[in-house]
Amino acid sequence: MSLIEEITVKNVDHLGIVAGLIDEIGIVEIINQKLGVDNREKITSGQVIKALILNGLGMVSRP
C-alpha cells in the first residue's frame, strides 16, 4: 500500500483580489456613469475596462 497521495495544485494568481478591488472601488460603475450605457450592449464599457485591466496585468489563465 502506497502512502503517497495524489495532490492537485491550482494557480489562482491574484485575479480574485484585483477583481475584488475593482468592484470595491466601483471602477466599473464610474466608467458606466461617465460613458453611459446603451441597452443594446451585451457588456458595458466598464466591464470591458475591467477585463482589459485584468488581461493587461497578465492575470488571465492561458490554455
Description:
The chain is mainly alpha-helical and 63 residues long. The chain has a domain at 15-56. Helices cover 51% and strands 0% of the residues. It is built from three helices and no strands. It has helices at 15-25, 27-35, 45-56. It is elongated, with a radius of gyration of 18 Å.
Task: Jot down its keywords.
mainly alpha, 51% helix, 63 residues, 3 helices
Question: How would the blueprint of this fold be written?
Answer:
Elements (H helix, E strand, L loop, with lengths): L14 H11 L1 H9 L9 H12 L7
Secondary structure class reads: mainly alpha
Largest sheet report: none
Span between N and C termini?
36 Å
Fraction of residues in β-strands: under 5%
Task: Write a compact overview of the structure shown.
The protein is built from 3 helices and no strands. It has helices at residues 15-25, 27-35, 45-56.
